[in-house]
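User: For my dataset I need records formatted as: sequence, then structure tokens, nothing else. Please produce one.
Assistant:
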Amino acid sequence: MKFSDISFHGNAIDRLRRMADEDRIPHAILIDGPEGIGKFALARAFAQYVHCENHTPDGDSCGVCRSCRLHQALNHTDLHFSFPVVKLENMTSPPVSDDFLNEWRDFIKNNRFMSIDSWASTFTKKNAQPMIYAPESSSIIHKLSLTSHISRYQILLLWLPERLGSDTANKLLKLVEEPLEDTLIIMVSNDSKSILPTIYSRLQRITLRPLSDDTVTSILMEENPLEENDAKAIAHLSLGNMIEAMRQLSLSEEQSRFFEMFKSLMRLAYQRKIKDLREWANDLAALGREKELKFYEYTSRLIRENFIYNFALPELNYLNSAEGDFSRNFARFITERNVEKLIEVFDNARTDIAGNGNGKIINLDVAIKTILLLKS
């Protein structure tokens, strides 16, 4: 992993690069921020830069020296990993990270943006909560006490220190307080407030913010065959989280179905086709309670977007291509006279359905109220 692979964290990269170039690397660093923004990828890139034998003129690891090649293969002898694991049924004692090292390498090799849920899903024991067990502290101390083989620094990348058990954390505290010579511990956290305070206070912290919409849009378009408007719409919903952006992308089929139902509702309501709207209400109810809730959440958003569409400020709109084509003619029906009331109707429908209300009756009531509000 090179800095150029995560260039969207430019300020943090500059800070880390200066630490290495000026030989002022602290013994323990915390990279924290929300999930899905590439924090662990940044930690990997920094570790590779520290070990690189021939930095490039633009301030990156070279990618071709022996250390860089070993980093890219995740096989550098002076690079160690610690991460939450699961005690499986066949284990008689709590596991350590090394018990799952092959699975871990496959996981980080294929995931620039990592989530604890996706990591937990790789274990055969489902619904388990990965954690870092007490034996891990002894394993870490042993690894870092060894003489480095290739590079000056022994580097430990510790993912999610907030999942350290209290016994484990207390044993590691001494290592943070009294570091071994030429060792570097880089912790990567989604929830730094849950780290043992005595450890947290001794870490040099680098906090990352959610990715910008432009960054998420760019990544989506690089990795998927998407139109720019579609990528922008997904980016806006993801709130700077690439994991959420990919989830939204995977929901595109479901969203397309919701969009077709939204169009049907608005067209039939405008034409006052009560009989057809009754069928529409039944069809929506047949999707099930969870889908109904998601549909009304989607519908409220689309009503807001159509209201904003009337201001003719494209930078404020987050509609995909199909939604934008429909809104070109439909948006004029959503005005200051009905926008709040329509959203209230859909939000109330969500509340009623969540409270086990009859979906067919609630959906038909929504349809009739939509008729009245579109005509207002």
